[in-house]
Design brief:
Elements lengths: L1 H18 L4 H10 L2 H8 L6 E6 L2 H11 L8 E6 L2 H7 L7 E4 L5 H11 L3 E5 L5 H9 L3 E7 L24 E4 L2 H9 L5 E3 L3 H9 L7 H7 L4 E7 L1 H17 L3 E6 L4 H9 L5 E3 L5 E2 L2 E2 L1 H9 L2 E3 L6 H4 L5 E4 L12 H4 L5 E3 L7 H9 L2 E3 L3 H13 L1 H17 L3 H12 L7
Parallel strand pairs: 1-2, 1-4, 2-3, 4-5, 5-6, 6-7, 8-9, 8-14, 9-13, 10-13, 14-15, 15-16
Antiparallel strand pairs: 11-12
Helix pairs in contact: 1-2, 4-9, 6-7, 10-13, 11-17
């Protein structure tokens, strides 16, 4: 099976650029990976010790931010790699790393070449980034390697006949910091005990959001004194379930609505706007001079009922204006987006129906801070209930805020371990 895996990975190296002709994300990924070796040649400092941090995409990047903020950039060069274009394209200029690039595809040749160039003193993987050739190479080099906010499920390939060969690559990890007890049990069943349940660093990241200045002038003008519903990271499947309520709210004008779609390219935005009533305004259409709104733009914001955020990077601040937050992805099969970013502001959270792979959603639902809906009627019912019952809304929001605060601390556990390895790795 290892031979088949390596063959498939090698084929992917050839086929992905071709597939990129038909898919914008694959095109971005292929273009970015073509630049990897030049980026490394131009930026890697051979005389400085290095820390390599790898994440899959934007969500995993947010998980590791609290740790990146504490890594000692005065003594170590930080190399951050992404697998997904959505992560790399948004964070390629992050000040939290010295060098940012895509991860070369997981071939033996690439793994050997990449690690020969960066020669890390420490490797940090996030959640479930298990690339066997890279892990085998790290083990061969005896590189200190840890997993942060790790997740192990019963249905992962390690437990299957076709993926059992990959268990050997897990020996590369010196320590596993896991999100929950079920992950610990599943890892123990694979024969590994060098692990602890430290929790999810996303809670630490989410708790930081509420401490910063989240003011956005255009949202101050838009929301005014009205209640506000934020629909974050939405997909067409989410909007389809919400359309009946959106139409009713448009006619009544009871509250303001902010929609931040997951995909913001022109074609997707046109489809979204076509599905809504005319009473909308796009963030990109607001006339601004050095981020100062014109009188005309202010008047439009005050009059319109629905605002579409057709840009990336504002959602975590937008959630701070929510009375109620809907987090997208789970109505279809795209995967539930980050509910912690909304819950940290102490507001009720609503999601779609497909969230079994996201235990944090089930936990928050059990506590009474989250509602799952499957139909337009269910969405209409819970929205009207929350918008008319302030006691329920406040109580549900308090549950969310307390849940975030009571689950912080995972970052502290990781940093404590790193200090035990070497005091110089992190800053106080």
């Amino acid at each position: 099976m290892k031979f088949i895996y390596n063959c498939l990975t090698t084929c992917a190296k050839v086929l992905l650029p071709v597939a990129g002709i038909f898919n914008e994300k694959l095109k971005l990924g292929s273009k970015g990976r073509a630049m990897i070796w030049d980026i490394l040649d131009q930026n890697i400092k051979k005389t400085v010790p290095k820390i390599w941090v790898h994440v899959a995409s934007l969500g995993e990047y947010e998980q590791v931010v609290p740790i990146l903020e504490k890594l000692n950039k005065e003594k170590y060069q930080i190399i951050l790699t992404f697998f997904s274009p959505s992560g790399y394209e948004n964070k390629k200029n992050t000040p939290l790393a010295d060098t940012v690039c895509y991860l070369p595809l997981d071939t033996s040749v690439n793994a050997s070449k990449f690690l020969e160039i960066i020669n890390p003193s420490l490797a940090i993987m996030v959640k479930y980034e298990f690339w066997p050739n890279y892990l085998n190479e790290l083990q061969t080099r005896n590189t200190k390697t840890i997993l942060v906010s790790g997740v192990f499920r019963e249905n992962m390939s390690f437990h299957k006949w076709y993926g059992s060969w990959m268990k050997k690559s897990l020996k590369a990890f010196d320590y596993f910091f896991l999100q929950n007890e079920s992950s610990l049990r599943n890892l123990n069943n694979l024969g590994f005990t060098n692990a602890t349940v430290s929790g999810d660093t996303r809670f630490d990241r989410a708790s930081q959001l509420i401490e910063r200045d989240n003011t956005l002038d255009f949202l101050e003008k838009f929301t005014g004194n009205k209640k506000c519903v934020v629909i974050g990271s939405s997909w067409p499947e989410d909007i389809a379930v919400q359309q009946e309520w959106l139409k009713e709210n448009y006619e009544s004008g009871n509250c303001k609505v902010i929609i931040a779609p997951h995909e913001v390219n022109d074609d997707k935005i046109k489809v979204l706007t076509a599905s809504l009533d005319d009473d909308i305004v796009l963030w990109s259409s607001l006339k601004r001079n050095h981020n100062i709104l014109t009188t005309e733009s202010i008047a439009i914001l005050e009059q319109k009922n629905t605002l579409i955020i057709d840009t990336i990077g504002l959602l975590t601040k937008v959630y701070s204006y929510a009375t109620i937050a809907y987090v997208g992805g789970a109505m279809g099969n795209n995967g539930l987006h980050n509910i912690l970013e909304a819950a940290t502001y102490g507001v009720p959270v609503i999601i779609g129906k497909n969230y079994k792979k996201f235990p944090e959603a089930g936990k928050l639902e059990d506590l009474g801070g989250l509602f799952s809906v499957a139909t337009p009627g269910e969405f209409m019912g819970i929205m009207n209930q929350l918008l008319t019952d302030d006691y329920l809304t406040d109580k549900t929001g308090m549950i969310c805020g307390h849940w975030i605060n009571s689950n912080t601390g995972a970052t502290r556990e990781v940093l404590k371990y790193l200090k035990q390895i070497d005091e110089k790795l992190v800053i106080s």
